[in-house]
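[audit] Reproducing an earlier prediction to check determinism. Same input, same settings, fresh worker. If the tokens differ from the archived copy the diff job will pick it up downstream; this log only records the rerun itself.
[audit] input (65 residues):
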Amino acid sequence: MVEKHRTWSHRSLKDKRYVYGCTDGVHFNIRLETASASSVQCILSVDGATAEGKKELIAIVDGDR
């Protein structure tokens, strides 16, 4: 699964045209035992809409808040 994500996240967007873009972040209240008290898991995503009205996921990445 990790290799599939790596391949997908490095794909070329050269021929893609988006007329609208949106970024979003989702924070989870899950605290890991090894994480500091101020660390909260977060998923960041970038979506785009084509001229035909199709919504596509452009990028997604995890991180800490």
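[audit] rerun output stored. Observation attached for the diff report: The mean pLDDT is 86.
[audit] end
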